[in-house]
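Hi U.,

Before I forget, here's the chain from the pilot set. I'm dumping it here mostly so it's searchable later in email.
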Amino acid sequence: MQISQSFSAQFTYPVHFGRGTFLPENDLLADVISGSGRVMVVIDQGVAEAFPDLSSRIQDWFASRADKLELVCEPEIVPGGEVLKNDYRRIMSLVDQMLEYHLCRHSTVLAIGGGALLDAVGFASALVHRGLRLLRMPSTPLAQNDAGIGVKNGMNLHGGKNTIGVFAPPFAVINDFDLLDGLDNEQWRAGISEAFKVAMIKDAPFYEELLSLSPALGRRDPAAMERLIARCAELHLQHIATSGDPFELGSARPLDFGHWSAHKLESMSNYRISHGHAVAIGIAIDAFYAARLGWISEGTAEELFSALNVCGFDLCPPELTQTLGDGSLQMLQGLEEFREHLGGCLTLSLPHPVGAIGEIHEMNTNWIAEIISRMKETACS
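Structure:
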């Protein structure tokens, strides 16, 4: 006997853009979590240090609405970045707290921080009662235009990137541009690479716009960054909604253009190289590879490399040319590791041409070595 089961599930969540979420007169957050009165807040330590009064402002904001909303404890401040994503004990500690405060499936966990914190807190939230309501408030451009608006949650384990995790859409997202003011230059520029990534494979006019915005982005122009975040987020959300594979059950992941090498560079550097920085290097490598295939012009690949430099990325860190005992590039191990992460055969997406996608299932490692050598010469010239 066999019974075949098939069903679909509808997910809907808003992504808001604005400023001043915790101003006394701003009711956006209250409107978003209406009907979900018990709230636990988790703040990235880096955000808390950049805005020392944030915790007290949050408590005051909730206190003024105590008739409708309950802040179950003072905001919990935890290490951000890969420190949290690498530490299973810290994440399980968050699970313990959610249970100790008797959060239920109609309670809300408000996570304020960068993409790594959102991943980790989202993972913890998804485990409790099979899923609490997760409200993300991304604090970096990379999180506001990519990690914070998607459906992935997870952590690092066994030396790998995102080796365990779940797909769980957020309840809502609030992109508060005020949070970007507290970032250092490395964090501020990290999201730029994801915008170039999605533009190269999804939107040629946006790619051209990013080229023209590069000088402004390099000098931290807020208007240029807000435009980048809004359009990049829109493209990511469109892909999730229309790709037919929002939970990545297949072997092809177009939005992982440039990521096979990026993930490896992150782990090789013990996460000294941030995700956004690594993606900038990864899309540069893959753009030159696409040019070798004749899918884009050499001039386009060089143009991308130059624009990323103008935005402030170091595209040739020492890890890029690090070798193993046999003389081969250590970074090339990332191809097999990425295949394992994807499942099935290796499938990589490249621009074909700019604004569209082509797929390959293997890479010529000699070409990659030559491309990296060329990038090193260009970066050092």
